[in-house]
Write a structure and sequence with these properties.
alpha+beta; Immunoglobulin-like; four-stranded antiparallel beta sheet; 5 helices; about 35% strand; rod-shaped
Length: about 160
Amino acid sequence: MKKFYMLCVVPTLILGGCATIVSKTVYPVRIDSDPEKAKVTVADRNGKEIYNGLTPANISLRSSAGFFKKAIYTVTFTKAGYKERTVEVAATLNGWYFGNVVFGGLLGFLVIDPATGAMYRLNEVAIEETLEESKALTQQTHTLQIKDINTIPEAWKKALVKL
């Protein structure tokens, strides 16, 4: 039993970062909108498009954008007749990262968890947005114009009705 402990547990504590052991680096995220079938685009912190589709959608997002860089995503909803809506989703510091003080040591704190991305986590597992109708597209304007009979074209005069 002591050999098992020495071969499995001790190397994990010495070589593994705490957040890497107990957390994940890729999170499932559900994206939905009201109304459904809105076009949704997800871009990373560099503006690179990583997803393009319709709602509802289930996608996987990484919590890290590189060594000591948290992931930041821009989620944009568009649909004809509705105002465009943009939401930012940002990773936060994972509480398990601080477990390195006790279990993972300096190697886990400065190298392993930042390199794997486990030092960050995505808290948003569902993004649900209600799109607002665009009044500019649904509202029609009518104007009343008064014209002098002597200034209108002859074709219009033939269509006039006497009151």
